[in-house]
Amino acid sequence: MVLRRGICFHVQLASEGLSTNHLQDLAGGPRDPEESNAHRLQRIRKKFQRVVRRELDSRSRVDPVARMRHKLGRYALSGLPGITAPRCVRSLQILETAVSPRVAAAVLRTLWNGWTTSHRFQGSETCVLRCSEWAQDKLEHYAVCPCIRKFGRTFLNLQRGPANCQLGQFIALGLNDAKVADEELVRRAIWVYSAYRAVMEVSHNGYGSQEEVQDMLKQFAREAVRGHSTSTAILDGCFVNWNSHSITAFEASLDEWQEDI
Ligand SMILES: [Zn+2]
Fold first, then answer.
1. How many structural domains does the chain have?
2. Residue 142 CA, ligand 1 centroid: distance in Å
């Protein structure tokens, strides 16, 4: 049993690129010609476990910014990847308290291409929200899908950005193009969460009508903030801003719908 454990231990160290000789050298420190072998061995025994733990920890530590940059690399986002990645990591830290965990999880799932669309599994289905017969069931499409953008505009008061910024507005909450204020970040996170829930819901349970899709998105936005005071206040604030707009939300959404299609 002890022998088997010892073999497993050596195999684990080898898989991490660590040899016992190297670890013993680290534990023993610089060699002193006048030091006896027994004394050096005693020091190695004393420090060996600590050195192994330190070396294993240093190898298993993940750099979150590098990981984020790698994950975002699949999207053709505008902006500089070296700036976008740390901003996204920082935004997730802000969202930890600014929204409920389910909303933050949806944002991370979107950043990391975690939606179970047909395109992700090499399929070629069309947009489940049926915005057009050419649109693919693909995360990059949902970022610009007129149904989802209409909801963002009319219910969350999200402003329409230039066409080349729309992908990033959804996938990376717009952090690829500029810093985003916390309140705006929360509204975009609610938007992403609602879209994710609606697409998954329609994928599994079928499509009704465009009106039902809009109602469903609104319902998921309310669920996004349920039981969370900060994001509830921000969602309520959307309606205040919305009412003071110079054009009605309905007019804006029609305009957006026509342009997006
Ligand atoms: Zn669509």
1. 2
2. 6
Q: What is the block-wise mean pLDDT of the chain (261 residues), using blocks of 10 residues?
A: 59 73 85 84 88 79 90 94 97 96 97 94 92 94 96 92 88 96 96 98 90 96 95 85 43 45 39
Domain boundary among 11, 40, 59: 59
Nearest-angstrom CA–CA distance, 50 and 45 = 10
Q: How far is CA 80 from CA 110, 141, 162, in A?
A: 19, 22, 17
Q: Cα dist. 17→21, 47, 61, 87, 118 in Å?
A: 12, 19, 15, 33, 39
Q: Copy the structure tokens of residue 123.
A: 């399929």
Q: How far is the CA of 203 from the centre of ligand 1 (A)?
A: 12
Residue 25 lies in domain:
2-59
Nearest Cα neighbor of 130 from 199, 74, 221, 193 is 199
CA of 191 to the centre of ligand 1 (A): 15
What is the whole-number distance in angstroms between the Cα of residue 135 and the centre of ligand 1? Answer: 6
**Residues 87 and 48 grouped into a single domain:** no
Rounded to 5°, the CA angle 31-32-34 comes to 145
Measured in Å, residue 167 CA sits from the centre of ligand 1 at 13
Burial 162-185 (b: 16+ CB within 10 A, else e): eeebbbbbbbbbbbbbeebeeebb
Going from the Cα of 157 to the center of ligand 1, the distance in angstroms, rounded, reads 20
pTM: 0.73
Task: Say whether both 52 and 84 belong to one domain.
Answer: no
**Ligand 1 centre distance from Cα of residue 149 (Å):** 9
